[in-house]
Amino acid sequence: MRYYVLDRGDQLSIDLSQKFHKLAEERGLQLDAESPEIVVSIGGDGTMLHAFHTFIDRIPELAFVGVHTGHLGFYADWQCEELSTLVDYMCGKSDPAPHKPRIVKYPLVELEINRKSGTTSHIALNEFTLKGVEGTVVLQIDINDETFEMFRGDGICVSTPSGSTAYNKSLGGAMVHPSIEALQIAEIASINNRVFRTMGSPLLLPKHHHCDIFSRREQRLMLTVDHTNYPIDDLISVRCQVSEKKVSFARYRPFPFWKRVRSSFLV
Ligand code: NAP
């Protein structure tokens, strides 16, 4: 089994990372930065976002495992003190052996940015957002090539199901089970009065639909894709849809989504 470890960079995560390498070597796992089968993220959900984007070109060929250095996370289901058990599971030395992981696949959002200066493509694990840098943004939202609304406000957030518990949740979006192949469009502080009107509710689009967001005036925007920010001052439009690609997580034991939601936000 070829593996790679990415940590958050704080002392605890670095120590755990070193401990992981030691345990892995003892049990015959092979460290491979180029073509790992399993990528272990040690830190938090934010660290998983970094791990995902580090291996963005190899997403279909590998699976992720997350170790959380604080409370349990949405992408990180193992705790620090369980490192040895995790390595045992990964090398099939668990009891009862061998322990094959269940590979769960989560939907992703793909976006194409059309600028006067060219076109780029991205994939988001949590979400992408388009926000104003200098105040109100004006964006035309088209769904399946039909104009849906003209948006005025702080911005728009388009999230994946697994990202629905992150920024999207703060915007009043619904939490969506990752088995549902959909993307969610949530408004960030829309202006609604007699003159300007938006739907005001988050929208859930199925896999076979697409959405175009057109910049409708000269404006400086900030595009965020998960943890990364891209300033843009020549945006024409963004096309987004549920990606054909999915991210894989290796589950060596059950980690039900609704249990995670409850333990993160309620108890
Ligand atoms: P950060 O601002 O340092 O941390 C954002 C927080 O979001 C962390 O507590 C992180 O958990 C948590 N998180 C990340 N993905 C999550 C998920 N899928 N479900 C529930 N919580 C999640 O930024 P960062 O660590 O680089 O993460 C970037 C993410 O921050 C973005 O993708 C966006 O979702 C989120 N964000 C949220 C808001 C908001 O809620 N108002 C605003 C901006 C960005 P850990 O502590 O386990 O890493």
TrEMBL record:
UniProt keywords, alphabetically: ATP-binding, Cytoplasm, Kinase, NAD, NADP, Nucleotide-binding, Transferase
GO cellular component: cytoplasm
Catalytic activity entry: NAD(+) + ATP = ADP + NADP(+) + H(+)
Binding site for NAD(+): 45-46, 50, 126-127, 152, 154, 165-170, 189
Spans traversing the lipid bilayer: none
One GO MF term: NAD binding
Alphabetized InterPro entries for the sequence: ATP-NAD_kinase_N (IPR017438), ATP-NAD_kinase_PpnK-typ_C (IPR017437), NAD/diacylglycerol_kinase_sf (IPR016064), NADK (IPR002504)
Active site annotation, chain numbering: 45 (proton acceptor)
GO biological process: NAD+ metabolic process; NADP+ biosynthetic process
EC identifiers of the protein: 2.7.1.23
UniProt subcellular location: Cytoplasm
Main localization (coarse): cytoplasm
Needed cofactors: a divalent metal cation
Protein family: Belongs to the NAD kinase family.
Summary of the function given for this chain in its UniProt record: Involved in the regulation of the intracellular balance of NAD and NADP, and is a key enzyme in the biosynthesis of NADP. Catalyzes specifically the phosphorylation on 2'-hydroxyl of the adenosine moiety of NAD to yield NADP.
Name of the protein described by the UniProt record: NAD kinase
